[in-house]
């Protein structure tokens, strides 16, 4: 079933080509049939007319000269003649087929031979399969003119040139179809590419709105949709930033009031909670600021970026330098927003260090991009909660204490950034124990 192509261009081209072949075949057949008919007509007339002339020419000659003259008379293809003492038509020849009889008018009256002395004394006719016949006509002074008619089969075309011209014409039509289809389908491919780009880069330039009406409409609809999505995301981000910002003032007031609380224990707890709230708001604001729009997409070295993330982790915790490991190539070109990606990877590495106690980052080049695994050998996460960990402010049981320091936004932010690049991050528990964060990032070369 490989014959039916998958692409729209392929299908359209195939349909048009089949149509072209059918039309050409029909045209060729009509032309050939017409030619065959015309050729048969001309052939018949020529053979009949020349045969008749031959008889007249010989009939006026004395019998001894007929044999001398005969070779000099030019005869059309399919007609041979001889002058003999006996008729060539004999009793065991098959009868002439009705078709041949009709074609050469053998069933009608004999042609006008002129004066009585020129008329054949006797006419014998016998068939020569498949489409010929023999005719013997006796002269008044004895002797026979033996004609043998075997018309060559008619050819459906006259010269080779016709065939070549036909082939050239078909090739031109095929080329035109392939070119035209590709040209007409191009906007569809462009639309698909634009939709793909929008998933990774919100600020991709709009599609050109030219071309045929349908493509222009589709492009316009796409551009409208893209700008609506952009506005929607912008609104949400601004709202998030505004809420985060406005919450700060009441928290500051609460902090002031807490300072005046009598009960030391209560005051300590309250200030703790307020500190936690502030941390969450800071994270929220950072998240809101992480507007994909602000950082441009550029080409960068992903391997160097991974190593920087690990180096910074070592700087933050020098005592753990020997459990922070990088496996991967020295260079890997990628396209994206490096600062955002660095943040996403740093979040994963800091989780591995905070909850697993060590971090190994493995970078691999895959057919469709890059694949990064951040692994630790800690307790991992219960299977049912692997996805929940990505929800904002979600901190799983056991890591609730502030000691590990997070606010529950790390994975949310990481996934947000990676999906903004057309990639993703998923968590899984390793067989050897510990957690693995698998990052996929398209577009690395
Ligand atoms: N490597 C890991 N090992 C075990 N648990 C993890 C790991 N990474 C993340 N988690 C769990 O997922 C939760 C959410 O992670 P994250 O979004 O980074 O928030 P945070 O680190 O600020 O708590 C963490 O609180 C922790 O319970
Ligand atoms: Mg974290």
Which percent band covers the strand fraction? 15-25%
Q: Estimate percent helicity.
A: 40-55%
User: What is the helix tally?
Assistant: 9
* CATH fold-level label of the largest domain: Heat Shock Protein 90
**Strand arrangement across the biggest beta sheet:** 6-8-9-11-10
Distance between the termini: 34 Å
Give the ligands present. adenosine-5'-diphosphate, magnesium ion
- What number of structural domains do the residues give? 3
Query: From the helix content, strand content and strand pairing, which structural class follows?
Result: alpha+beta
Average of the residue pLDDT scores: 88
Biggest sheet layout: 5 strands, mixed
How would you spell out the order of helices and strands? HHEHEEEHHHEHEEHEEHEE
The tally of beta strands, per DSSP, is 11
CATH class of the largest domain: Alpha Beta
């Amino acid at each position: 079933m490989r014959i039916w192509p998958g692409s729209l261009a392929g299908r359209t081209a195939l349909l048009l080509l089949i149509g072209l072949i059918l039309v050409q075949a029909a045209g060729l057949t009509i032309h050939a049939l017409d030619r065959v008919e015309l050729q048969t007509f001309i052939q018949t007339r020529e053979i009949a007319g020349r045969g008749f002339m031959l008889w007249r020419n010989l009939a006026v000659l004395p019998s001894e000269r007929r044999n001398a003259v005969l070779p000099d008379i030019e005869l059309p293809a399919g007609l041979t003649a001889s002058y003999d003492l006996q008729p060539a038509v004999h009793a065991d020849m098959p009868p002439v087929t009705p078709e041949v009889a009709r074609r050469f008018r053998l069933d009608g009256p004999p042609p006008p031979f002129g004066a009585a002395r020129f008329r054949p004394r006797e006419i014998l006719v016998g068939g020569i399969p498949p489409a010929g016949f023999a005719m013997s006509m006796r002269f008044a002074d004895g002797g026979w003119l033996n004609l043998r008619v075997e018309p060559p089969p008619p050819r459906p075309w006259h010269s080779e040139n016709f065939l070549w011209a036909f082939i050239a014409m078909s090739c031109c039509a095929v080329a035109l179809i392939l070119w035209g289809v590709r040209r007409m389908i191009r906007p569809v491919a462009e639309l698909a590419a634009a939709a793909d780009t929008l998933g990774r880069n919100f600020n991709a330039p709009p599609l050109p709105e030219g071309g045929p009406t349908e493509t222009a409409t589709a492009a316009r609809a796409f551009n409208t949709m893209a700008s609506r999505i952009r506005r929607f995301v912008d609104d949400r981000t601004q709202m998030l930033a505004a809420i985060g910002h406005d919450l700060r003032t009441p928290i500051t007031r609460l902090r002031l009031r807490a300072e005046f609380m009598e009960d030391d224990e209560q005051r300590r707890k309250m200030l703790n909670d307020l500190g936690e709230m502030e941390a969450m708001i800071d994270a929220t604001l950072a998240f809101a600021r992480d507007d994909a729009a602000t950082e441009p997409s550029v080409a960068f070295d992903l391997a160097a970026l991974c190593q920087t993330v690990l180096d910074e982790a070592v700087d933050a915790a020098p005592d753990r330098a020997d459990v922070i490991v990088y496996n991967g190539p020295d260079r890997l070109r990628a396209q994206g927003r490096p600062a955002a990606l660095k943040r996403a990877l740093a979040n994963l590495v800091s989780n591995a260090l905070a909850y697993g106690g060590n971090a190994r980052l493995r970078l691999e080049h895959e057919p469709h991009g890059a694949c990064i695994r951040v692994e630790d050998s800690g307790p991992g996460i219960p299977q049912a909660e692997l996805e929940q960990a990505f929800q904002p402010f979600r901190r799983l049981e056991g890591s609730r204490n502030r000691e590990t320091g997070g606010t529950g936004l790390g994975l949310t932010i990481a996934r947000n950034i990676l999906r903004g690049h057309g990639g993703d991050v998923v968590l899984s528990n390793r067989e050897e124990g510990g957690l693995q964060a698998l990052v996929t990032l398209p577009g690395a070369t």
